[in-house]
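Shipment paperwork, digital attachment
Item: protein structure file
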Amino acid sequence: MKKISLKVIDSTVDLEEFEYEWEQFRSQLHVSSLCLSFTWINLWCHHYLKSQDRLMIHCYYLDEKLIGIFPVYLEKIILGYQLRFVAQGESQEAEICSEFQDFMLESKYQHELLTMFSQAVLAIDGIRACAFSNVLEKSVVSTWVKGNFSNWQVNNLPLGVRYLLPVAEDNLSQIERLKSKTTRRQAKEYFNNEYCLCEYVGEQYSLDSLFAELVSLHNESWQKRGQKGVFENQVFRGFHYQFATKANDLGKLALFKISYKDKTQAIFYGVIDADTLFYYQSGVLRSSKLLSAGIAMHMEALAFSQSRKLKYYDLMKGKSDSYKKKIVSGGDEVLNIIAIKRPYLWLKYFWKLKLKYKALFAKVKV
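Attachment content:
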């Protein structure tokens, strides 16, 4: 009988050497998730992983064949550690907000791998909790927590839904699929407006100049609401500049600006992963002369997806009343899952406090 073996990646040096195998395995499984890409995971470790945290990415093999990657680490907390996905757990003011992460595995080995992983996690000295943010309710990690932590306090916090839109063959067909009559009118107005111009990185603008304009427009928009834009944070900005650079080198970056009569109205920042364009961030002029600069931006992203023969446009997580439902109906539920070892149930009050005062935590270092 063939035996499943385990390799644990516990250093960024070892992780660097695993890129090819990681991406080959993702491709084999047809995993389309921006926040499970090797570049996203690796850059997060270099920008956010703290010296007191412990990287412990579990890689499972059947003989020499890779059959599972569990991209996790141990975050140092009060009196111990909590298990998290790599690319989660950063401070609120620098949060990259990874979404839809999961264990990557061949489904026929799921039971064996989850059992092995449970045994490894429960044997960790100082393990106090597991916390997984922005995961899908139907994910493997959700199944794992439900089936292996009966003696722990498990809390599932609904955050919203995933907004995933199939890409049509042309703009007219795409407009007809929009859920709101007003949105369809705004989309038609954009495509028929002769004064609108869309320009992509590499055409007339370098990555440096267009990224800098994105940062400026995004921060300006939030400042006018009396809040700080996340791009003001140097660590967050550095992470995304490097991520965008890598994506651009691989031909996967979607960074463009929409102008009206030579004035910038919106800048879009997204990345292709497998057959999907992921919308990550943007800057929109609050005093735009367009009916909706935001809808114009999303329609251009869909046109870009058509040109690249992509299957989906992922607007990612949103609340049930998000503007995104004007574009597409919400889909799978998104959760925060927290499992706490019973002698340490006081930790749940820390989590509740952190969530309740999220805006405060974004401005105050704790």
